[in-house]
Specification:
The protein is mainly beta. Helix content is 0%, strand content 44%.
Length: 181
């Protein structure tokens, strides 16, 4: 069984400002309006959620009788729910791996990974939702952030001691043009 923690837990790179920024409370998510299907739960498919536990077993099928194929070891990681079967959710992670997770191990809290497809390209965290706005920090690939809100182009994300704006296209855990309040 492989244990996955997404490359040793992401972290904030090169903080450029002094002092901590207060965290904003998480807003209730509004799911992609163009979702074509609803699952048995009544929620849209696909949709993004996050892991609610620091140990989440992923199985090859939707029951406790199915073999565990790997275990996530980081609470809060975003995953995409792509199917539902009873209390089980088939999820896909940022690396494209799919498996089944019990719904009790998932949360509606929205989180994102910063450009997990990039190897070495740091992403500026900006003070305002503008390309010309000053960077307040640079985020390495796989930094995990909380989603405060997204307007369809930019998302305000935060972590312990930091908050700022990132273009939505550089995040995994929100859909293109999705608005999150």
């Amino acid at each position: 069984m492989k244990r996955i923690g997404f490359r040793g837990v992401p972290f904030l790179f090169a903080m450029l400002f002094a002092g901590a920024v207060a965290l904003l409370p998480l807003a209730a998510p509004s799911y992609a309006a163009d979702a074509l299907e609803r699952g048995a739960s009544g929620l849209p498919l696909p949709r993004f959620v996050s892991l609610s536990s620091s140990e989440v077993n992923v199985r090859i099928g939707p029951s406790f009788n199915h073999k565990v194929v790997w275990t996530y070891t980081k609470s809060g990681l975003p995953v995409e729910v792509i199917r539902e079967f009873g209390n089980w959710r088939q999820v896909r992670d940022a690396e494209g791996d799919e498996g089944w997770v019990h719904q009790s191990l998932l949360s509606g809290r929205r989180t994102v990974l910063v450009s997990p497809w990039s190897q070495n390209e740091n992403v500026p965290l900006r003070a305002e939702a503008k390309q010309a706005a000053r960077p307040t920090a640079y985020l390495e690939p796989y930094v995990l952030g909380n989603v405060n809100r997204c307007d369809g182009s930019w998302c305000e994300i935060s972590g312990r001691g930091w908050r700022g704006q990132v273009p939505q296209s550089l995040l995994w855990g929100v859909y293109p043009r999705e608005e999150v309040d």
